[in-house]
């Protein structure tokens, strides 16, 4: 039996089929072309994209370090390439340019609304290791993370300001659109706990919606849901597939009251992750064109490449000099592995440092999907939009722990000074940074790549003695023992 043809956002046909590698290679090359033509040629000529992609994603960051225009040019070039190459597949079998998606028939969506019965929480609290920290205890934990290099000092400052200003948690002046409402890293439950109005968007899965509705009833916020017409229970009518229905959702969102904050927390496996990220990007562009006051929110993955401040380089350099792994052991390990194990995180005095924490097992589609989000954050901020884009900590989400190698690496990561967060801690921390950004305005530090590193909660990946890829393999070996 042949598979049903893919609908909605699809990869272009290349030769005999839809090649995700060919498209990814071309997009990265297009992004580099204006700033780094040599790098662009190297990306186009990459013979094995599935194993060779990390070098080219790193080059995207290095090539954009010269000027703000270089960084914005890379982001613009990448997004332009994505939108020109990806296609829109209609039910009747025709494929058109992605920009023509809005010209087809749209499924009408109605609105269902559920108000929680709880009292909104008037002060910030942080779930951590079985306790719920507030006030001085929450501040002490933030200080601990900063002192150990687990989060950036600017991230600690942002969370402390939220703790000191509980009135900021009255979010009645915003409507939060949470794309990927059930995502473990998303802010939905924190926002509902604080009494916010939340538009929930996720797939049509009744069990998923029953869980979200149950949570909403016990919190103080309100859930607003796009649903299909009919008399069936809400959980059976809720659900929007962004890949195939983002134009319908866009038309519905344009009519929603309140100042919108469009938060992207979607995830899918493999090539579908790129498809849904492109769909969200198209939705973001269309919504901001019609409602320019719409703010954007993103969470970047720590397992990517970032330009980091000199203070992180200094800390990592000191950690390397004082590492518990003795120099007598470190040398043989590096020799036996051809230099792949326990290599230092940065060259001393690098400014900025390049934190390369790409995990090859996650694959090029995952990284392209996340890079599309970073590019949109860069271009939207350059246009004057309010953008909250924060590097989230390594977290034990379901998508991580189902990857045995990555789950084992996370289990042993603490031996290298890296803290892996539980989802409830991570998503509450990131929700606090989002509130801070909306209340204080997102500031630029003079270069888009520096803005990306600001307020990061990298879990210690940026301040560790060893580069992530050179340590996580050993961490996985050690973690397998702890998980058995």
Task: Give the SSE layout.
Layout: E1 8-10, E2 13-14, E3 17-18, H1 20-33, H2 37-44, H3 49-63, H4 68-85, E4 87-89, E5 95-97, E6 110-115, E7 125-128, E8 131-134, H5 135-147, H6 153-164, E9 174-179, H7 188-193, E10 197-201, H8 206-218, E11 222-227, H9 234-237, H10 242-254, E12 259-264, H11 271-290, E13 295-300, E14 305-308, H12 310-321, H13 327-336, E15 353-356, H14 363-382, E16 387-391, H15 398-401, H16 404-412, H17 423-440, H18 448-453, H19 468-483
Helix pairs in contact: 1-2, 1-3, 1-4, 4-14, 5-6, 6-17, 10-11, 11-14, 16-19
Notes on the protein architecture:
The structure is a single chain. Among the domains are: 8-100, no CATH class; 110-307 and 387-393 and 423-442 and 450-463, no CATH class. 48% of the residues lie in helices and 14% in strands. The protein has helices spanning 20-33, 37-44, 49-63, 68-85, 135-147, 153-164, 188-193, 206-218, 234-237, 242-254, 271-290, 310-321, 327-336, 363-382, 398-401, 404-412, 423-440, 448-453, 468-483, and strands at residues 8-10, 13-14, 17-18, 87-89, 95-97, 110-115, 125-128, 131-134, 174-179, 197-201, 222-227, 259-264, 295-300, 305-308, 353-356, 387-391. The strands form 5 sheets. A 7-stranded mixed sheet has the order 6-11-10-9-12-13-16, sandwiched between helices. The chain has a 3-stranded antiparallel sheet with strand order 1-4-5. Strands 2-3 form a two-stranded antiparallel ribbon. The two termini are 41 Å apart.
